[in-house]
Design a protein that fits this description.
Length: about 120
């Protein structure tokens, strides 16, 4: 069962869209994990989503899903959908600096899906 939606209008909207997207997204594709935030720190996700337009990034290319860490609810922010690892790696290099500060790395869609059901 997926976790409850987080606070914040943009964050909640992308979380809800991601829940639908994960149902049919190709598991062997990759996305770029940007940040993990605790339920108490969702404002960081909201701020990064708000900056997407000014960085010429589409909000619809961001994904938010839930994960439990030490029995605490957290939310992960991911960006993009890439059919190969090489494209995901290039996608990381192409990210605006504001998104690089958290040490992004690739994550398979299947892993995102499995973590979302914790």
């Amino acid at each position: 069962m997926p976790p409850a939606p987080p606070a914040g209008n943009l964050t909640r909207g992308r979380f809800t869209a991601t829940q639908e997207w994960l149902k049919g997204a190709p598991g062997d594709y990759y996305s770029i994990q940007l940040l993990t935030a605790g339920a108490h720190d969702v404002r960081r996700l909201e701020e990064l989503l708000a900056r997407a337009a000014e960085k010429d990034l589409r909000l619809s290319d961001f994904y938010i899903y839930g994960v439990k860490i030490n029995d605490q609810q957290h939310y992960r922010l991911a960006y993009g959908l890439y059919p190969t690892l090489a494209e995901a790696t290039q996608g990381i290099r192409d990210l605006p600096a504001v998104y690089l500060q958290f040490g992004p790395y690739y994550r398979s869609v299947e892993r995102m899906r499995s973590q979302n059901h914790q």
